[in-house]
Design a protein that fits this description.
Length: about 150
């Protein structure tokens, strides 16, 4: 819910890529583009996504490129009835349907403080405590249901 409805750009820390795959599946009905931040044509793909209101998943974000800052801060300017944003040296029409999601497989990304203020970091790193809790839950469900103490949900 946080990922899909946040006013800030979601920044997914996703070492296993499971959350990213879920996001791709969940957004497949949108005009979805998936790119890597290191792609040679990254800026061009970003410009097109902003202009045409696409949903953009940017993978392998280890450090946020400066070209993304105006978009993440929503530094929009009005030019008559339309809004524009500066991407690099270009002024691009901003389509209000545009959405962007940043993902990294790095379990310990280092975001600058100014970036932390304009993204919503959601950490999907598996921890020992989280894994222990999941195993205990499964054992309890199995034990209780095998002893007739829990009626399974249908």
């Amino acid at each position: 819910m946080v990922i899909l409805r946040s006013q800030l750009c979601p920044f997914l820390v996703d070492p296993s890529s499971r959350a990213t795959e879920w996001l791709k599946t969940h957004l497949k009905d949108k005009k979805l583009e998936v790119i890597n931040q290191q792609d040679n044509n990254f800026t061009t793909q970003l410009e097109l996504a902003v202009r045409f209101g696409k949903t953009l998943i940017v993978q392998e974000v280890d450090g946020v490129e400066p070209v993304l800052y105006p978009i993440l801060r929503k530094d929009l300017a009005a030019q008559g009835p339309r809004h524009v944003v500066q991407i690099g040296e270009k002024i691009i029409d901003y389509n209000s349907d545009f959405r962007i999601y940043l993902t990294t497989r790095n379990p310990t990304p280092e975001l600058l403080p100014d970036m932390e203020a304009i993204v919503n970091e959601v950490n999907f790193t598996t921890t020992r405590a989280g894994l222990t809790g999941q195993v205990i839950k499964l054992i309890l469900i199995f034990y209780l249901s095998s002893n007739g103490l829990v009626v399974p949900f249908k």
